[in-house]
Each structure stands twice: as C-alpha cells, then as structure tokens.
Write a structure and sequence with these properties.
By secondary structure, the protein is an all-alpha fold.
Amino acid sequence: MFDSLSLGSAFLLGMLGSAHCIGMCGGIASSIALTSNANKTRSLLFYNFGRISSYAAAGAILGSLDYLFRYGPLESYLRLFAALMLIAMGLYVAQWWRGLTKIEAIGHNLWRFISPAASKLLPVNNLRQAFSLGIFWGWLPCGLVYSTLIWSSAANSSAQSAMLMLFFGLGTVPAMMTTSLLAKQLKGLFSKRISQQISGAAIIVFGLYSVPWRGLISIFNGYLT
C-alpha cells in the first residue's frame, strides 16, 4: 500500500511545490547564477544543499517532539492535522486560499535576525559562501515549508522527520536549478497559474489520501460506545 509518509512522497511534494519555491527562493538563486564569481552550477548546488540542510535540521527539531504524540488517539490527531496542513498547502500553491500566510508571519520575527547575516554573503565568491547562504535562506518564512514540517512530524521520529524534509528539499532542486541556469521562459512556465493550480490540486488529493480515516473511525466509535 502507498505510504503517505515515505521518502518518495516527500520528494513528490517538493516537486509539486516547486512553483511556489521558485517564487520564494528563485530570485536569490538567480542572483547567484548572475553574480557568482565561482562556478555557477556548483554555486547553485551548494546553495541548494545548504537550504535543504536547514529543512532537515528543522525536521529533526520538530520530530524530536514525537514522544508527545506517540500513544493513543493523539497520534491520529497529529496525522489528521498533518493531512489538513497538506490540503492547506495545496490551496496555497494553487493560490485558491492564502491562509498559510498567517503561519508565515510567525517566522518573520526570526527572519529579521537572520536576513542581515544572509545579505552579507552576496555576491557569492566561493562554494562555502554559497552553502552558508543556503543555510540562512532555508529559514525564510514559508507556508509551504511549514506545512511540510508539520506533515513530516507525523512520522514520530526525529531522524525520519529529518529525512522526509531532506527529500522534500531534494524534490525542489530540479526546478530551482533549471530556472536559475537556463531561461526566463522556464521560470514563467513554472509560475503560470495553470501550473500552480495543477500542482496545488495534486497536493490536495495527496492530503485527502493522508487523512487517517481508520484511526478517526476508531476514535469516533470509541466516543459512541
């Protein structure tokens, strides 16, 4: 049976969310390609590896709270919440509902302290600088990342949550690399409304599949008896 919390699922979510990632991080990635004094391809790869490392670190931190939800109906509630966040992510990517922007606002206080340090790393002169910039940029307030973090935390394991976020990040790399290195037309293709809507609808379907229906039925039956 298809596992909604598999590494393949995380990679797919990253690919489907790429249209949003290009809007959030595409500008900084393109600037690296245009201004980097090091090899452009390697600079972009190191930037993306840094960004993904921050996603994995955040996944490990949130996943370390697994003991709070390990037993009883709480685990089903967490999985339900994670599925609802995926549905919200799909609505967000498709631009049908922007409620996740309220969650993004939570991270803006942290970003105020991080952004000055990140801006000092531009222009990128070496691979270490590109990697460091990616680490900082991985903490940019983003509803897509936040919803994926909550989804990954349902794995109830710090290591598993980190791996899920790692593969989610890897799923965003192909589109980020392509649009940064090749043509503005490709960036326009990913940012077209129809592309966003198709990606968002696919994420919504995935979220509906992730709902722990059996667990919810068991909880509901428990209340009735």
